[in-house]
Amino acid sequence: MISCQQTRPNEGQSVSEVTLPQADDQPTEVEVMEVGEALFRQELIANGRLSAIQKADLRFRVDGTIERLHVTEGDRVQAGQLLATLNDETQQQALRHAMLRQQKAVMDYEDQLLRLGYRAADTAALDEEVKQIARLRSGLSDAMLEWHKAEKDVHHTKLYAPFAGKIANLKAKVYNTTAGLEYVCSLIDDRELHVEFAVLEQELDFIKHAKSVRVTAFSEQDRAYEGKVASINPQVDKSGMVMVKAVINNKDGGLIDGMGVSVVVSRDFGNQLTVPKEAVLDRQGRKVVFTVTDHGTAYWNYVEISHENSTHYAIKKGLELGDQVIYSGNFNLAHDKPVAVMAP
Question: What is the torsion angle, in degrees rounded to the nearest 10, for the CA atoms of residue 290, residue 295, residue 296 and residue 301?
Answer without folding.
Answer: 0
